[in-house]
Amino acid sequence: MPSADDDARWAEAQRVLDGLPSEALEARVRRWRWLTILLVVGLLLLSVAFAFAVAAWAGDEPPATEDEPLWREIAALAVAASALVLVAVGSIVQWRVTRRLGGLRSPLTVLDRRQRKLLLQELRGTVPVEPEHVPLVRHLAERLAAQQWLLIFQLGLLLMFVGQFIGSPSAWRLGFVVVFGLGIAVVAPLVRRDERQARRFLAEHPDPRVAS
């Protein structure tokens, strides 16, 4: 049976979805911003340490005696250019969609993990949809339907690694390509499944504001 805290979170999420101010949401946004800053700083420090480690390891390799063939340089540039286009398109479109849907100020952020899981189950049809949850499930579906642009962004990153490997083959660059490629191969079917389920829910539950 839902507790008073659950009811309060559901009501707060609906308030955010309706565009009303929420102190709980603003507190979460401020906390997430600080966590994001710490994460970015940590990743930058880790990247610098990794770059020094790779440079030290590569410094032990014997220098190349011949220049890279022209075809390899041309192929690397072509792949890198394609990668930049995909990364730019994927990141820009995803940013615009996320911003339109509220970004960090999504009503889903004031719900706990169990409540978000319930909305996902309602979207997938594994549990009946509560009528009062339909607007929140629609919001979740809109966010999931836009995740295809994340795949395009990740494909662009993969092509960047491929271009680096073509231009200057090495074991660690090949490892990046293989690991990242396997990651996309695992994630892509899951994202596509969520996208199909989200679009099905949106079609079955049209926005009443648009329908009217």
UniProtKB/TrEMBL annotation:
Spans traversing the lipid bilayer: 34-58, 70-95, 148-166, 172-191
Transmembrane helix listed as a keyword: yes
Keyword annotations of the record: Membrane, Transmembrane, Transmembrane helix
Protein name (Swiss-Prot/TrEMBL): Uncharacterized protein
Annotated organism of origin: Blastococcus carthaginiensis
